[in-house]
Amino acid sequence: MKSSILSEISSPKELKKLNYAQLNLLCGEIREKIIDTVSKNGGHLASSLGAVELTVALHRSFNCPDDSIIFDVGHQCYAHKLLTGRFDRFDTLRKKDGISGFMRPDESVYDPIVTGHSSNSISAAYGIMRANMALGKDATAVAVIGDGAMTGGMVYEALNNAGAKKGRFIVVLNDNKMSISKNVGAVSRSFMRLRNGKRYHRLKFAVGNALLKMGRFGKAIYNFINRIKDALKTFVYKNNIFAAMGFNYLGPVDGHNIAAMESILDIAKSYDRPTVVHVVTCKGKGYSYAENSPDDYHGVSPFDVKGGVEHKEKTDFSAVAGKTLCDIADKNPNICAITAAMTCGTGLSEFSKKYRDRFFDVGIAEEHAVTFAAGLAKGGMIPFFAVYSSFLQRGYDQIIHDTAIANLPVKLLVDRAGIVGEDGESHQGLFDVAFLSTIPNMNIYSPYCYGELEYLIKKTAGNNELAAIRYPRGAEKNTADIDFSGDYTLISNKAKKVVVTYGRLFSYALEAEQQSKNFDIIKLNKVFPVSDEVLELIGEYETVHIFEEGIRFGGVGEHIASKLLEKGKSSELTIHAIDGVFVNQQTTEEALDLYGLDTKAIQSAME
Question: How do residues 423-432 score in pLDDT, each as one tens digit?
């Protein structure tokens, strides 16, 4: 792609030299670059396309990096990266050793914090603003948050803490009517009401700008009018959640009109109090396929730009989980499914259509989802909460206090467990076994193939245990006709060496064993707790190598090693796992190779 303006932008300061005609051309070039790169590398497309003009307006209105702009979740920050000195490296987006698909402070001074998960921007930006005040810095902190992220409870903790305080703190509500799946709930309906009355808001901005240009006298009139307006708004607009929490509210404004946004941001900067600027954008703007199907183009694999994403019926672990839930829900009216704004991602689209009364999208609220599932279980339902491993981390407290202590039979379908690839550190599912195995009454399973996943969903649906079934992103690999109905499966060559593993890594161990036949494999069908029978079997081997796709500290390997030591077993034991690092973005195969968890590494260890 040839670029006449974008390639010359090395910092946001250069945006302020451009006229609006040039800025409009620049926005077109940014979209072309984003579409071209994502079509080759995959990534988050629709969100970033919708935030192009907004990003340009923000960088013209503020002086970064002295001022701080935090893009919530971060998947809407591609334009931000292009405008902050990363144009030349943008082709490496989401590649190994390339630039991240999210904000990363170690990548640029223009990225204040690490992003990747939803609903943390307001807390972080407010913290930066209070630090600015404490240190006497004349700077503004801005949080850019989509209304999907506004369903996360952390947002309201932050709003409650920040409201009615002094300081230049601005929350930009990027209202695109979407999160990943369509927005649900009362918060979304509230924003729909706020989008009404645009004529009033246009007039308000015009009058406000005119008064502010009149100097001190105009500003005095402006502030007087605002005090009257705020009193009237409190009386008339009782349902404005931002005003109710102590924020000044401005908007809505067209999120694709740079001049209009600059005007309203200038007004927001004039306040010495927290302010919400409500910006209405079109998710997927500028690429017709993404505009028409923003949910399908939220996160995409490489695709043909002219033809768009191919909508093939895919089979992967998520799809199998969703289909299996449909099968058992058809026979059992107590089966229900929960998602936290990830209906498509967790394979629940068909379930959501067939069993509307038993499907619950709670928004981006994993903590609530877990306790809600506990309530459903207490009421007699059989709830399955399908959630990405990295997102489940937010529900740890609720799993302990609201679920495990009462030993309620909630079923956690832990999707994207293990290494996930190009989304990088914030999305790797490497911690679930370690944190779930600390919880009494928890039972952890990790199927390696579709058949085992189907078996485990049906098995746990029929018992009263609290269970987590963890499975990887993508498709099954290298399967075998084995029995996985017990706590373990033994592949025996009558060797003195054994590989102990579970989940996807069993496929790699099986591949290595088929080539050498010089070691045995113990596949943990039940990952935790590890039964005494399995521990006795492992203790019979002279050499034990435990391979697990998760962190070493607190993992199953350490549990087994500790128990064997207690039993006085003297096996030579080695644990192969992710040891004290966050796994960077790269393909799954690259990561498994790097950390010694693939077929080649298993063969090497067992020579």
Answer: 999 999 999 9
Alpha-carbon distances of 590 from 89, 369, 584, rounded to whole Å: 20, 34, 10
Q: Is 411 a catalytic residue?
A: no
CB of 121 closer than 8 Å to CB of 72 = yes
Q: Which two tokens stand for residue 519?
A: 């070691």
Provide the pLDDT for residue 235: 46
Q: Output the CA–CA distances (angstroms, integers) from residue 543 to 500, 510, 520, 521, 573, in the order listed.
A: 11, 18, 10, 12, 6
Give one word for 281, left, alpha or beta, with left for phi > 0 and alpha for psi -120 to 50: beta
Cβ–Cβ < 8 Å for 53, 172: no
**517: Cβ–Cβ under 8 A, 6 or more apart, which residues?**
493
Name the residue among 529, 358, 517 with its Cα closest to residue 440. 529
**Given 60, 283, 523, 552, which residue is catalytic?**
283
Is residue 3 scored above 50 in pLDDT? Answer: yes
Distance CA 193, CA 229 (A): 19
Catalytic residue from among 366, 422, 452, 549: 366
User: What is the average pLDDT across 128-137?
Assistant: 96
Q: Which residues contact 476 (CB under 8 A, 6 or more apart)?
A: 317, 448, 449, 450, 507
Name the pLDDT band for 211 (thresholds 50, 70, 90).
low
What topology does CATH give the domain 317-470?
Rossmann fold (3.40.50)
29-64 pLDDT tens trace: 999 999 999 999 999 999 999 999 999 999 999 999
Every domain of the chain with CATH number 3.40.50.970 lies at: 6-300, 317-470
d(CA 520, CA 210): 80
What are the φ and ψ backbone dihedral angles of 96, each rounded to 5 degrees?
Answer: -60, 130
Residue, of 237 and 513, whose pLDDT is higher: 513
pLDDT at residue 313, rounded to an integer: 72
Q: What is the DSSP letter of 584?
A: P
Q: Dig out the tokens for 560 from the structure.
A: 């087994």
Q: Is the pLDDT of residue 306 over 50?
A: yes
* 297 pLDDT higher than 60: yes
Range list for CATH 3.40.50.920 in the chain: 488-605
Class of residue 476 by CB neighbours under 10 A (exposed 0-12, middle 13-18, buried 19+)? buried
Phi, psi of 293 (to 5 degrees): -135, 65
* Separation CA 94–CA 78 (nearest Å): 11
- CATH H-level, domain 6-300: superfamily: Thiamin diphosphate (ThDP)-binding fold, Pyr/PP domains (3.40.50.970)
Q: Is 394 a catalytic residue?
A: yes
Tell me the CA distances in angstroms from 234 to 238, 242, 247, one per residue in order. Answer: 6, 11, 12
Active site residue 366: yes
- pLDDT tens per residue, range 73-114: 888 999 999 999 999 999 999 999 999 999 999 999 999 999
Query: Using DSSP, how many helices (H) and how many strands (E) does the chain show?
Result: 24, 19
Catalytic residue among 33, 94, 285, 394: 394
CATH of 488-605, one of 3.40.910.10, 3.40.50.920, 3.40.50.300, 3.40.50.360: 3.40.50.920
- Site of tokens 């078996």: 455
pLDDT digits (tens, 9 = 90+) for 261-294: 999 999 999 999 999 999 999 999 999 999 998 8
